[in-house]
Write a structure and sequence with these properties.
The chain contains 25 helices and 23 strands. By secondary structure, the protein is α/β, with parallel strands linked by helices. The longest helix has 21 residues, at 364-384. The N and C termini lie far apart (60 Å). The chain has a 6-stranded parallel sheet with strand order 5-4-6-7-9-8, with helices on both faces. The chain has 3 domains: 3-208, Rossmann fold, CATH 3.40.50; 217-377, TPP-binding domain (Rossmann fold), CATH 3.40.50.1220; 385-575, Thiamin diphosphate (ThDP)-binding fold, Pyr/PP domains (Rossmann fold, 3-Layer(aba) Sandwich), CATH 3.40.50.970. Belongs to the TPP enzyme family. Its EC number is 3.7.1.22. This is 3D-(3,5/4)-trihydroxycyclohexane-1,2-dione acylhydrolase (Decyclizing). Residues 46-131 form the Thiamine pyrophosphate enzyme N-terminal TPP-binding domain.
Length: 618
C-alpha cells in the first residue's frame, strides 16, 4: 500500500479538496466551495499552515466574526440547494463558542455546515491554556462541547487514524437528505500537527452521490387511496421540494395533472412560479387570505418536504380538520401529528403518487374555487404593494418598489431575510418565478443572519442580484460581514427598513395584552441623552460600502436603480411605519400568555388563546 506522510491538518484539507459533486450541466465541481477561517491559537499553526499550502485548490476566506462566517456558509449551502457547502475553522475559545448560534441555525434548517474548531491539547501537558474552559467534574470537557447539541454528528480527533473513519462519516451526514445538518470535528491543536503515513488512495478524488430514496408501494397506495377519497385536497409545499433533485418539476407536474391548490411554507416558497393559477401563496401564520381560506376548508392536506412547524400549521389549528398526508425523506418529519406518511424523496414520492392516482383529478368545483381565490389574491397583492397605508412608507411599499426596480426581478433577483416583520411581509408579497429567488431563514429566525447570509448567497449565485431586506434591529445584531462583502468583491444590496426598534415583537407584546415595554427605543430605559440617533448610511460607508438614506418610496425607487448599477455593496436606509404591516391573511399562533395578570388586556388575550387552542389537532 502506497502511503504519504502528512499532518492531521494537511490530511483533512487534502481530503476535503478531493470531494466533488456533479453539476446540473454534467460538469464536476468541488463539493466544498472553500473554508472560512478566523485564525487564533488552536488553529493558526496546524490548520492554518495546511490551508495555506492548498489555497489554490481550496480557497480560504477571512471574515470579521465567527458567527457571521458560519451563517454565510449556511446561506451558501441553502443557495446551492444543499448540493455544495463550506467549512468553517475557529480558535478554541470565544471563536468556537461564537459558532453555536450559526450551528443551531443550520441544524434547524437541515443545512450542511462543516465546523472545524480548534481544541485544547489532547495531552493536557500545558493545561490550562489560554481560553480553556475548565470543568471541575470532567477533564475531557472543552468549549467545543457546546456544539454537541447543535451538531448532527460530532467527533473529537484524538489520534490521526480517526480521520480515516471520521471524514467519510462527516461527508455522509453533510450530504444525506434525511440526516443533513452541521458536522463538528473538534481538532485538538497538538493533534493537528501530528504526522501519519496515510494511504494515498484515501485522497483519491470522489464524486458524491446524493441519495433520493424511493417510496414503498404500500405507502404510495395508502396515500393514493386517501387522496382519492378527498373532496377538497390541498398541498403544502416545503423546503424539501426545492432540495430534491427534480422536486420542483415533479410538484409542477403533479399540480397540473391533479388540479390541487398549493400553499407554500417559508422554506418551500418558489417551487411554483408566483403566477401559477393554483398557487394560493403563503400558508399559516404569515399566510395569504387565499391559502388560509383553502386550508380551513380542506379535508386532506398533502404536506411535501415540510417540517410542519407552528408557523406553517397555525400552531396545528389551521387545518386540524383535514386528514394529514406527508411525503418526507426524513422519518422524524414524515410521522408528525399522526398523519399517513410516505418516507421518500419529494420528487420520487410525488411521481410515484401521481402514477398511483392515474387520471384522478380534484373535484371540479373545488379546483374552480381554488383558482378563483388564487387569482383574487394575485390581484389584491398588486394593489397592496403600491398603496399607501401610513404617513411613513410601509414594508409592503418597499417590497413593491424593490420588485418594480427591475423588469426581470421575478426571475433573477434573490431576496434574503430572516427575522422581524419582513419575513411575514415577504412571505405574502414577494413574487418569484425561479427556485431560490426567495431565500428565507425562518426555521431558527436568526437575527443577524441577513447580511452574512446575503454574502454567502452571493458567493453561491454570483450571477444573480442578492437583495438583503433587513430591519434595524437585525442589522444592529450583526452587520460586519458587509465589510467582508466589500473585501471579497461580492456585491450585495442591503435594504434597511428602520422602525426604531423591535417592531415585530412590540406588536406581539401588545397582541398578548402586554404594555409596550423594552422593544421600541421610546419604550426602553435610557440614560439622560435618550436613545442614539443611528446613521445607518454612515455606518455602511465606514464598512466600505456605498450607501444613502431616502425618505420616500419615490426616492427609494431611484436609489434602487443606483444600487443595481453599483459594482460595490450598497445600503439603502429608509424609515418605515413600524406598526403598519399587511393585515390581509394570517392565522392564530400559540404563545404562552400568563394565566394571572393585573392587566385586563392580558386576561382577555389569555381567554382568546384558550378558545383558539381548542381548535388544535391534538
Amino acid at each position: 500500500m502506497k502511503t504519504v506522510r502528512l499532518t492531521v491538518a494537511q490530511a483533512l484539507v487534502r481530503y476535503l479538496a478531493a470531494q466533488y459533486v456533479q453539476a446540473a450541466d454534467g460538469t464536476r465541481e468541488q463539493l466544498f466551495g472553500g473554508v472560512w477561517a478566523i485564525f487564533g491559537h488552536g488553529n493558526v499553526a496546524g490548520l492554518g499552515e495546511a490551508l495555506y499550502a492548498m489555497r489554490d485548490k481550496l480557497p480560504t476566506f477571512r471574515a470579521h466574526n465567527e458567527q457571521g462566517m458560519a451563517l454565510a456558509a449556511t446561506a451558501y449551502a441553502k443557495a446551492h440547494f444543499r448540493r455544495r457547502m463550506m467549512a468553517v475553522s475557529t480558535s478554541i475559545g470565544p471563536g468556537c463558542t461564537n459558532l453555536v448560534t450559526a450551528a443551531a441555525t443550520a441544524h434547524v434548517n437541515r443545512l450542511p455546515l462543516l465546523l472545524l474548531p480548534g481544541d485544547i491539547f489532547i495531552t493536557r501537558a500545558p493545561d490550562p491554556v489560554l481560553q480553556q474552559v475548565e470543568d471541575f467534574h470532567d477533564g475531557g470537557v472543552s468549549a467545543v462541547d457546546c456544539l454537541r447539541p447543535v451538531s448532527r454528528y460530532f467527533d473529537r480527533i484524538v489520534v490521526p487514524e480517526q480521520l480515516l473513519t471520521a471524514l467519510p462519516r462527516a461527508i455522509t451526514y453533510l450530504t444525506d437528505p434525511a440526516l443533513c445538518g452541521p458536522v463538528t470535528l473538534a481538532l485538538p491543536q497538538d493533534v493537528q500537527a501530528v504526522a501519519f503515513d496515510w494511504p494515498e488512495s484515501f485522497f483519491d478524488e470522489r464524486t458524491v452521490r446524493f441519495r433520493q430514496p424511493p417510496a414503498e408501494q404500500i405507502e404510495v397506495a395508502t396515500l393514493a387511496a386517501q387522496l382519492k377519497a378527498a373532496k377538497k385536497p390541498m398541498i403544502v409545499s416545503g423546503g424539501g421540494v426545492l432540495y430534491s433533485q427534480g422536486g420542483v418539476e415533479a410538484l409542477n407536474r403533479f399540480v397540473a395533472k391533479h388540479g390541487i391548490p398549493v400553499g407554500e411554507s417559508q422554506g418551500g416558497k418558489g417551487a411554483l412560479a408566483w403566477d401559477n393559477p393554483l398557487l394560493a401563496g403563503s400558508v399559516g401564520v404569515t399566510g395569504t387570505p387565499a391559502a388560509n381560506a383553502l386550508a380551513q376548508d380542506a379535508d386532506a392536506v398533502l404536506a411535501v418536504g415540510t417540517r410542519l412547524q407552528d408557523f406553517t400549521t397555525g400552531s396545528h389549528a389551521l387545518y386540524a380538520q383535514a386528514k394529514l398526508l406527508s411525503i418526507n425523506v426524513n422519518t422524524f418529519d414524515a410521522i408528525k401529528w399522526g398523519g399517513s406518511s410516505m418516507q421518500a424523496d419529494a420528487a420520487a414520492g410525488l411521481d410515484a403518487l401521481s402514477a398511483a392516482l392515474g387520471d384522478w383529478r380534484a373535484d371540479a368545483g373545488w379546483e374552480a374555487q381554488s383558482r378563483k381565490l388564487c387569482d383574487g389574491w394575485r390581484r389584491q397583492l398588486a394593489e397592496i404593494v403600491v398603496s399607501s397605508r401610513a404617513a411613513l412608507p410601509t414594508y409592503a411599499e418597499a417590497i413593491g418598489a424593490v420588485q418594480a426596480s427591475a423588469a426581470d426581478s421575478a426571475a433573477n433577483d434573490i431576496v434574503l431575510c430572516a427575522a422581524g416583520t419582513l419575513p411575514a411581509e415577504l412571505h405574502k408579497l414577494w413574487r418569484t418565478s425561479r427556485p431560490g429567488g426567495y431565500h428565507m431563514e425562518y426555521g431558527y429566525s436568526c437575527m443577524g443572519y441577513e447580511v452574512a447570509g446575503g454574502l454567502g448567497a452571493k458567493m453561491a449565485q454570483p450571477e444573480r442580484e442578492v437583495i438583503v431586506m433587513v430591519g434595524d434591529g437585525s442589522y444592529m445584531m450583526l452587520n460586519n460581514e458587509l465589510a467582508t462583502s466589500v473585501m471579497l468583491g461580492q456585491k450585495i444590496i442591503v435594504v434597511l427598513l428602520d422602525n426604531a426598534g423591535y417592531a415585530c415583537i412590540n406588536r406581539l407584546q401588545q397582541a398578548c395584552g402586554g404594555a409596550q415595554f423594552n422593544n421600541m427605543y421610546e419604550h426602553c430605559l435610557t440614560g439622560p441623552d435618550g436613545a442614539p440617533a443611528i446613521d445607518f448610511e454612515l455606518n455602511a460607508r465606514s464598512l466600505g460600502a456605498e450607501a444613502e438614506t431616502v425618505r420616500s418610496v419615490a426616492e427609494f425607487a431611484e436609489a434602487m436603480q443606483r444600487a443595481r448599477a453599483s459594482k460595490k455593496s450598497y445600503l439603502i436606509s429608509m424609515q418605515v411605519d413600524g406598526p403598519q404591516c399587511t393585515p390581509e391573511g394570517g392565522s392564530w399562533w400559540q404563545v404562552g400568555i400568563p394565566e394571572v395578570s393585573e392587566r385586563l388586556e392580558v386576561r382577555e388575550a389569555r381567554a382568546r388563546a384558550d378558545e383558539a387552542q381548542r381548535r388544535q389537532r391534538w
